[in-house]
Each structure stands twice: as C-alpha cells, then as structure tokens.
Design goal:
The model has no long low-confidence stretch (mean pLDDT 95). The chain is an alpha/beta fold. Strands 1-3-2-4-5 form a five-stranded mixed sheet, with helices on one face. The relative contact order is 0.24. The protein is built from four helices and five strands.
C-alpha cells in the first residue's frame, strides 16, 4: 500500500528507518496514471520492507523544489535518508524492481 506523503509528514516517513520509494506525480499527468498502478503493485510486493509514497507535485511545493522535480512522473529511491537513484518518466516494472533491489 502506498502512502500519501506531504510537505508536512515527509520527515516522519524518512525517520522510520526503511528505504523509501517516492512517486512524484500530478493528477493531469498521463504517464503518471501508467506508473501509479506499477508503484501500487510494488508496494504490495515489498510491504513491510520498503515505504512507498506518492507526492502530488501541485500540492507539495516544498518537496518538489527540494528535490528539483522538473518532470512527472519522477520516482526517487532513498536509502539512509539520501536519494541514491531516480527514474524520470514512465518505465517498465522491471526497471523499478532493479532500483528497489539496490536500496534493500
């Protein structure tokens, strides 16, 4: 299950001590609608081991600016509170799995 991550609750999510996968998306974004179900599947497959969050770029300007998100969808892979990788644009599920396995 993915979590809704906001400017307000982001630090709580980071401080849980697990790797984090953040999906920066927007309601108006077609490719985001393709990525969303893939992220949801992965969240179920990796439940309890990795935190999956969705960040609406239109509602969370601080995080969008902090991570210099210029295009959506952008998925960040965070380990030990540091961004270690990212994918910009829609990608096959296997690409996400490869990056997730690197942060576990």
């Amino acid at each position: 299950m993915t979590r809704i991550v906001t400017d307000e609750n982001f630090n709580e999510v980071l401080n849980e001590g697990k790797p984090v996968v953040l999906d920066f998306w927007a309601e108006w974004c077609g490719p985001c609608r393709m990525v969303g179900p893939v992220i949801e599947e992965l969240a179920n497959e990796y439940e309890g081991r990795i935190i999956f969050g969705k960040i609406d770029v239109d509602e969370n300007n601080e995080l969008t600016a902090q991570y210099e998100i210029r295009s959506v969808p952008t998925v960040l892979f965070i380990k030990d509170q540091q961004v270690v990788d990212k994918l910009v644009g829609a990608a096959p599920k296997a690409n996400y799995i490869k990056k997730i396995e690197q942060i576990m």
